[in-house]
Amino acid sequence: MSDDELIKLAEKTTIQLYNDYEKARQEEKLFSMESFTEEIDYKYEAYKDYYGSDVRATYEQYLENVKPMTEDIYYTVEGETAVNAANYTLDIEIDDLGQNTANMKLIIPDAFYYLEGYSDANTFSSYVEALFFTSENIFSEMDKDQWAKTLEQNYIVNLESSGSFKEKAGFKGTHPQNYLPAPYVWEQRDREINTDGEIIDRMIFDTHFSGVKTNNGSLLTRVDESFVGFRLDNPDTKKNNVTIEGK
Description:
36% of the residues lie in helices and 29% in strands. The chain has 247 residues and is of the alpha+beta class. α4 (121-133) runs antiparallel to α6 (144-160). The chain is elongated, with a radius of gyration of 29 Å.
């Protein structure tokens, strides 16, 4: 493969990785109707066994009053990604004698994208549990004002810090079906690669690559079959964008 073909392949692969990452996040559910329905069916039997009688009618009336959930809630993603060429900084630190490389550091600004965000899924799950599956509230006369205050303090306040409530048809106020988790947002991050200069060689798809081991993998470039090794700039080299540091 030519250099241009390798660059295009890398760009295509990177874009596909970002697209797959975003799709996976968008398909992830904060709330699942399937699990909710299964839990209701389970509670019918559990309450019947515990109270010693068929309490289905009572539970059904309670659910009708509080309005059960009707649809899944998904996460969303905002922002875009891009594959851009960027200038980098290569810091080379030589040993005490100024002859050999002690360490190299490659710093690439805005090297990759990641999804930044936070959703309090545990609190939302607990909120749904408290509202729909708390037997003390279903089968006893709890003070409505006190119960509303408990839900506000224990769940709603925290959820509003990581999302918002937007009323949908048939649901009022802070009903969990109205909850919208805050979107995940694409952000850029620098990348720093450190190496002590240990050389490695690889053959990939009949193409020779050589490079150096890094703190979390390797940094490779395509080379000719006759390649022997890298020759680093020395302190007398007159070239821009290379930093030589000595002790």
